[in-house]
Amino acid sequence: MSDYQICRWIELAPTERDGLIVDLDRVFFSSSARQSFESDQEKDQFRERWLGRYLKYFPECAIVALDGNRRAFGYVVGSLDDPAQDPLFADLAFFAEFAQLTARYPAQLHINIDADWRGRGVGAALVSAFVELAGEVGSPGVHAISTRGMRNVGFYLANGFAERSATVMNGRELLFLCRDT
Q1: Separation CA 55–CA 79 (nearest Å)
Q2: Total of domains in the chain
Q3: How confident is the model at residue 34 (pLDDT cuts 50, 70, 90)?
Q4: How far is Cα 27 from Cα 178, in angstroms, rounded to an integer?
Q5: Rounded mean pLDDT, 166-181
Q6: Is 134 exposed, middle or buried (0-12, 13-18, 19+ CB in 10 A)?
Q7: Which residues span the domain enclosing 71?
Q8: What element of type H or E holds 63?
């Protein structure tokens, strides 16, 4: 299971991207901390919020991990401009809470990896590729927001991110994790 390739989404042929959407959805839902939904509409909205809008509006920021059969088993999506200043992210109140930091670390990312591939360096490779991309366009820093106690916090810290701030929203402590490009 060590044979894989990291590819930028927009460098893949459109027909290949179309075929990989099913893989990305599988990885997204199997990796999500949220596993149940009251309706298909609620599930679709959740997908749109954390995956769909990034693929639609920021495809140049999407990077996928493909296995030897060219099936996606991991990805990173994000955006490069300050989300606290982008109306597209107005539905995520935590960006306003962290606006002073998002100005300094404007690029944001979301990463998911199939459980069978975790612990093999794929996540680190995806993060490195995203940080490199952000640096290429002149972004000074990258951030991720997570909830204290989630398994991904340790992953981010191990990949060069530092906790810079925290805030409590809806009874959860949200962490602002960031690193320079």
Answers
A1: 10
A2: 1
A3: confident
A4: 24
A5: 97
A6: buried
A7: 4-180
A8: strand 63-67
